[in-house]
């Protein structure tokens, strides 16, 4: 990691095992779950849940176990229980396709209602779930809690689903599902990760059945004029890794 980037980021270990750093001057904690915590704003952000991906594959005859929604919502519930946020922002592609809400079990919809109760619950539009969110808002029988927005300015941060070639200052985006590979214990280990240069942040996918794109792919690496920091998700801590050391 170059000296200028180290000075901007200055990551250090947070009690939760995450990394605390700043993005465009905004204090952020990168959580082991893949969620982003803004302590000064009591706001929890998660990206790319892809709820009902399993049932979408099953409907097409691919026998992917349809248990991803309960697993993903359990992880989100654990973060909410730990942090008690005032606001929760889901950064797009919360649902896997346009019919995901209609396939979702009533118990999981009720779980979403409970999680959202008493909080500002915000859905950002993603490329996968634009129709799903619009349809759910119009359906009186399977309504979603909260409100839907296209983008959101939050202090020094600008939240959007897809990272932009010419980003707003403090852009926080998802969509690309970044992952990185490092050598550990004599073998290669591949993990989802955050990617940041202190000016913008790309978040990992939060969903249980989501894949990942290597951070060295031009779709990710090309977003950063200088080598960024990769923050890999471990079991009980987030590992800051210099981009140059990735395999």
UniProtKB/TrEMBL annotation:
GO terms for molecular function: endonuclease activity; hydrolase activity; ligase activity. It comes from the Bacteria. InterPro entries: Calcineurin-like_PHP (IPR004843), Metallo-depent_PP-like (IPR029052), PdeM-like (IPR026336), Pesterase_MJ0037-like (IPR024173). Residues 44-133 form the Calcineurin-like phosphoesterase domain. Its EC number is 3.1.-.-. The keyword Ligase applies. SUPFAM superfamilies: Metallo-dependent phosphatases (SSF56300). PANTHER family: BLR1149 PROTEIN. This is Ligase-associated DNA damage response endonuclease PdeM.
